[in-house]
Amino acid sequence: MTPTDNAPTALIVDDEADIRELVEITLARMSIETLAVATLAEARAAFEEKGFDLCLTDMRLPDGDGLELVSYISERHPHCPVAVITAYGSADSAVASLKAGAFDFVSKPIDVAGLRSLVAQALKLAGLDHDAPPHPSLDASPRLIGNTPAMQQLRQTIAKLARSQAPVYITGESGTGKELVARMIHAEGPRMGSTFVPVNCGAIPSELMESEFFGYMRGAFTGAMRDTPGLFARADGGTLFLDEVADLPLTMQVKLLRAIQERAIRPVGANDETAVDVRVICATHRDLATEVARGSFREDLYYRLNVIEVHVPPLRERRADIAALATRILEALARKLRLRRAPQLSREALEALEQYAFPGNIRELENILERAVTLSEDAVIERQYLRLSSPLLESNRTTTAPEAPGPVGGYHSNGQPAAMDTSADLESQLEAVERERIQAALEACHYNKTKAAKHLGITFRALRYRLAKLGMN
């Protein structure tokens, strides 16, 4: 096929002639013009002469390392996606290439279908796939609210990660918006037109995990009446978001590691593996490195998932964003409750929110405001309707001092349970006791909610209701 003048261009860098020929033929059938070279020096010279829309480079070259070319392209030609060709089973090399800035990697022997899928993703990233859906506008895609330096840095990081296919590990306390960050990475990248599949790993019973993740074939077990795709198959071509990944049992961690490394799954009852093209993003409020040290999380899976780490700051570290967040939440509540106009916070109410520690972060802010809108009959919400138990006073803080250690809502600023504030009203005291008991049960049961409910002597549904009510999800 003869490429047109408007055809995308790709540089192929490999010292093996048969590999260069295979890649050239595959890309020519996709109407992509190619230039193939054998050394690192030739590749750099080619980039000096003309620009390319895509680069595919071998990891080992006669005169250098493929990672050198990845770094060179990332610095001087950041709009050109670069993919690395690695040896079969070389997971360390693949991870190193992604950390260096590679868009993706392909293993030898090269699978033509997988190569075509990778190239198609790269063309979408470069804006050269005319059949791809348009990039979502800021109003259509999920957004982070706030203009504090921490949020500006987080948005810049998301924009960079959206251009990569590397696995992302999102850390942060419960309620900070980790899933929103994952959705933004998906929505701003080349997979934006495909499915985003979120899953809470702690909500799936251990005996059903394999069939939920990988699907099952008809007759694989009692009740399997038809072939059913799993989470990986539903996310094929898109993104799979594993929330609370630390809750995965060790047996499932082994199978997840293989699925990620081999980019293939085997449904329960199937004899053969099926290739899948899935970007994995995971999140947890627990420290995975600590879980690895304890032996409850596999070290090899940790390093496979933690290629790039992103931290979402807690709300108490971005107090200047509370006003904007509250305004957006109140507008959403007005639409939900069909109010003529969105309620507003009084000056005293806003000050109280800005001084509160928010152990439940943004999710707790949403619950507080929804309760206040329900209780208040006026267009302006006064402080008493917020029902805050004990605001975190900032009068004794300096610009360099840490958060005040006083208890807030039954918690110290570090998230640890505190003694009750006897000056608070009865409802707030009861909530503080309830928080403390639930937190203790969750920690005793390693955050297994089903076990925690039994430990507390309540149903799982009752525990979920209380977690939502107290902003502790």
- Regions with little confidence, pLDDT below 50 for 5+ residues: 130-141, 391-424
Distance between the termini: 56 Å
H/I helix tally: 18
Number of strands: 16
**Sequence of strands across the biggest β-sheet:** 2-1-3-6-7
Average predicted confidence as pLDDT: 82
Shape: globular
Indicate the radius of gyration in whole angstroms. Answer: 26 Å
Overview of this structure, please?
This protein is α/β, with parallel strands linked by helices. It is 41% helix and 13% strand. The protein has 18 helices and 16 strands. A 5-stranded parallel β-sheet has the order 2-1-3-6-7, sandwiched between helices. The chain has a 5-stranded parallel β-sheet with strand order 9-10-13-8-14. A two-stranded antiparallel ribbon has the order 4-5. Helix 6 (149-162) crosses helix 7 (178-187) and helix 13 crosses helix 15. The longest helix is centred in the last third of the chain and has 19 residues, at 426-444. It is globular and about 75 Å long. The relative contact order is 0.07.
